[in-house]
């Protein structure tokens, strides 16, 4: 996940400044492995976007050179607007601009094809919501988890609203568990110690719930 917020909103930044910052963030995402900076071994590159208090995902298919927007909301918070002036582009086009310039810098073998064909396409998701404004981050993480390229993603979301809410709650617990127990979480050991202390003071309870939900 590259932290590119100011690159999308700062009107007076230059192309060079944005690409330099993108490169620095990407190196951090790749655990400072410079051998991967050319992105030649990746079939897809995903950007989780937080805009106007809403999460959605911009996916770059590096094999078929497509750009796809996955958003759980019926009504979008972003536009799809390009311009010769970077500041006037909508967010998907700004991300394309920065990423395309970076790929040119590192000499990606498909950069000419990519820059010629890339334009964002919003994917029509059967499970889109019109009133759920609180679970967008969970939807976004599920979209990233299940994306395998192309203009579709198989997430196994139910069309029944009650069942979908249950699935979202299950995913929320799953993602929280992964984040808290991740090796990159600097406070993981302290949290585990607190959890063990809390558990030792509570009566032991066992709760089992059978849930059918496809793993990403």
Describe, in short, the structure shown.
Helices cover 41% and strands 11% of the residues. It has 216 residues and is of the alpha+beta class.
Low-confidence stretches: none
**Series of secondary-structure elements, N-terminal to C-terminal:** HHEEEHHEHHH
Q: Quickly give the structural class.
A: alpha+beta
The tally of helices reads: 7
Largest sheet: spatial strand order: 1-2-3-4
Instruction: Give Rg in angstroms.
Output: 20 Å
How confident is the prediction overall: mean pLDDT? 86
The counted number of beta strands is 4
Q: What about the largest sheet?
A: 4 strands, mixed
The share of residues in helices is 40-55%
Task: Please report the distance between the alpha carbons of the first and last residues.
Answer: 18 Å
Strand content: 5-15%
Broad shape? globular
What would you say this structure looks like, in words?
The protein is of the alpha+beta class and 216 residues long. The protein is 41% helix and 11% strand. The protein has helices at residues 5-9, 15-29, 91-106, 111-117, 136-146, 161-181, 188-200; strands spanning 44-51, 54-61, 66-70, 120-122. The chain has a four-stranded mixed sheet with strand order 1-2-3-4, sandwiched between helices. The longest helix has 21 residues, at 161-181. The model has no long low-confidence stretch (mean pLDDT 86).
Q: What keywords describe this structure?
A:
216 residues; alpha+beta; 4-stranded mixed sheet; 7 helices; globular
């Amino acid at each position: 996940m590259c932290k590119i917020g100011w690159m999308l909103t700062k009107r007076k930044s230059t192309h060079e400044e944005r690409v330099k910052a993108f490169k620095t963030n990407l190196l951090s995402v790749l655990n400072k492995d410079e051998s991967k900076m050319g992105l030649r071994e990746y079939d897809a590159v995903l950007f989780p976007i937080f805009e106007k208090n809403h999460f959605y995902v911009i996916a770059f298919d590096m094999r078929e050179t497509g750009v796809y927007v996955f958003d759980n909301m019926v009504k979008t918070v972003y536009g799809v607007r390009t311009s010769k002036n970077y500041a006037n582009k909508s967010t998907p086009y700004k991300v394309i601009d920065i990423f395309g310039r970076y790929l040119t810098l590192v000499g990606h073998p498909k950069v000419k094809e990519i820059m010629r064909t890339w334009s964002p396409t919003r994917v029509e998701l059967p499970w889109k919501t019109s009133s759920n404004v609180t679970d967008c981050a969970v939807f976004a993480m599920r979209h990233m988890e299940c994306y395998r390229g192309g203009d579709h993603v198989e997430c196994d979301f139910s069309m029944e609203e009650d069942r979908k809410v249950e699935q979202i709650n299950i995913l929320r617990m799953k993602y929280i568990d992964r984040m808290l127990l991740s090796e990159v979480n600097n406070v993981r050991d302290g949290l585990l110690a607190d959890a063990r202390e809390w558990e030792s003071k509570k009566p032991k309870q066992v709760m089992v719930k059978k849930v059918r939900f496809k793993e990403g």
